[in-house]
Design a protein that fits this description.
The protein is an alpha+beta fold. The chain is 36% helix and 19% strand. α5 packs across α6. The protein is elongated and about 85 Å long.
Length: 501
């Protein structure tokens, strides 16, 4: 039986990553690793240049470089590994050269590595995106990938890019799916898939793969991004091809192929976390009649146990984009992390909903989005000052479509991009600050101000204004306005009166 514990070479030349020195140590095998940090420290790390996003990987003389980003990589070993099931380099289902796999280190993706090698006779490059899911999710990935038979592990820190280029545009647009869902997972998938395409180009892969099931939305989100950014890449979705039907089958397959089972205890919930939210599905939540258990929540304090004293927080916004908390300017990821911590301890941002999946079925999910809930309340309130009635109505209508496109995985669709241009233009004057009061699960706006405010106290006041104010708004004009505005209703009433006679 083939030994899949060693790593086969992914690149024809020596492979190295260059990463920023700050906060990095060289771990074993020359891998660039981050220093040990808590979840809060990891998310709150402030970038030196606010909003700088990852620009991709480039190869030069056989050296792969990372621009403006922290990268971890498991270097390939010099040994060659026989691929189980391959015949003359061809797998049981065909032949691929190299596949970049979206990798979490869990049971499913650990099993996918040998399955790809066996069925497609290919090398497997494991890819993990750090979108703020927490340091524990990244621990030991190198060893897990190597044990599964991967030839390379690449980890990209995408937190700043995720918040700046995906979360904040959705926030500016006011995009909410089906009245409740703040699109946490929907926004994360395209940034991960985009990075996978970049890695595929850098390592010369001809295919990408993911571990999404055939019942969910994520398979669509990943693959539409692949199609949009590199239509030549082949896509492999093992859950739509293999005979593995559940956890026991996966464990048996892992043992058969000498892959250490990465977990011993199954979580009763299916969770997906990033810097924006944490979702919970499965177990008792599959019955919409069941109330979530108190110990299920991980980001937010139970509102009943939250502090008895309210906390006031001021959010600074420039052109629809948050830039500061209580007067302190922060990078996008750092700002969101701080609000997550503040909102979490006050029990802010719990959502329980039944939603319509893109594939047609309904599903029940519970979401924790503390920082996002605060930001949405602040952004919407500031718009009440800076946007007129017709603009707000049109923006709200467009936001519904924007949310639908993001939920459906059409981030790189021309329509989504065009709506985003409109949102950016219409938000140019949405600048100012909003103060919110956080108390036992509630967010209450207490103050809002903007240099571009359309609100005029001298005009709206019930007190008599001066001559200039009367020239701008003469109350006597209201009679004519009402007569014209109500003309259709008066005509309809007159018609009804005549017909009733």
């Amino acid at each position: 039986m083939a030994q899949l514990n060693s790593m086969s070479a992914c690149l024809p030349t020596n492979f190295a990553f260059h990463a920023p020195k700050s906060g990095l140590n060289l771990c074993h095998h020359g891998v660039a690793c981050q220093r040990s940090e808590s979840f809060q420290e990891l998310g709150a790390r402030k970038s030196e240049l606010q909003g700088k996003a990852f620009a991709g990987l480039s190869t030069n003389g056989g050296v792969t470089r990372a621009r403006n980003q922290v990268i971890k990589a498991a270097l390939p070993s010099d040994s060659e590994t026989e691929i189980a099931g391959s015949i003359n380099g061809r797998g049981l289902r065909g032949k691929l050269n190299k596949v970049v796999l979206a990798y979490s280190g869990g049971l499913d993706t650990s099993v996918i590595v040998p399955w790809l090698r066996e069925n497609y006779g290919c090398e497997v490059v494991c890819f993990t995106a750090d979108v703020g899911q927490g340091i524990k999710e990244l621990d030991g990935l190198e060893q897990k990938a190597k044990a599964s038979g991967a030839c390379q592990l690449v980890v990209k820190d995408l937190k700043e890019e995720f918040v700046k280029d995906y979360i904040f545009p959705c926030l500016r647009a006011g995009a909410i799916y089906e009245r409740k869902y703040l699109l946490g997972t929907s926004m994360a998938r395209p940034v991960i898939a985009k990075a996978m395409v970049d890695v595929a180009k850098a390592v010369g892969a001809d295919a990408v793969a993911h571990g999404c099931t055939g019942k969910g939305n994520d398979q669509v989100r990943f693959e539409l991004t692949f199609f949009a950014l590199d239509p030549k890449l082949k896509v492999v979705a093992p859950w739509r091809e293999w005979d593995i039907t559940g956890r026991e089958d996966a464990i048996e397959y892992a043992k058969k192929h000498n892959v250490p089972v990465p977990v011993t205890k199954k979580s009763i919930y299916s969770r997906d976390g990033n810097l924006w939210h944490l979702s919970h599905e499965g177990d008792i939540l599959e019955d919409p009649e069941n109330e979530p258990k108190k110990d299920m929540f991980m980001l937010t304090t139970d509102p009943e146990d939250a502090p008895k004293i309210p906390e006031y927080v001021e959010i600074g916004i420039v052109s629809g984009i948050p830039v500061s908390v209580d007067g302190e300017e922060l990078s996008p990821a750092s700002l969101l992390t701080k609000l997550n911590e503040i909102g979490g301890r006050h029990g802010i941002g719990r959502i329980d909903m039944v939603e319509n999946r893109l594939v047609g079925m309904k599903s029940r999910g519970v979401y924790e989005t503390p920082g996002g809930t605060i930001l949405f309340a602040a952004a919407r309130e500031l718009e009440s000052l800076t946007l007129d009635r017709e603009t707000i109505q049109f923006k709200d209508t467009s936001a519904l479509k924007f949310a639908e496109l993001v939920y459906a995985g059409r981030w790189f669709d021309p329509l989504r991009e065009s709506i985003d241009v409109f949102m950016e233009k219409i938000s140019e004057t949405t600048t100012g600050s909003v103060t919110v009061k956080l108390y036992k699960g509630s967010v209450t706006v207490t103050s809002r101000k903007s240099p571009y405010s359309l609100y005029r106290q001298d005009i709206s006041s019930f007190e008599s204004g001066d001559v200039y104010d009367q020239a701008v708004y003469d109350q006597a004009d209201a009679a004519g306005f009402i007569n014209l505005y109500g003309l259709p209703m008066r005509v309809r009433a007159m018609l009804k009166e005549r017909n009733d006679q």
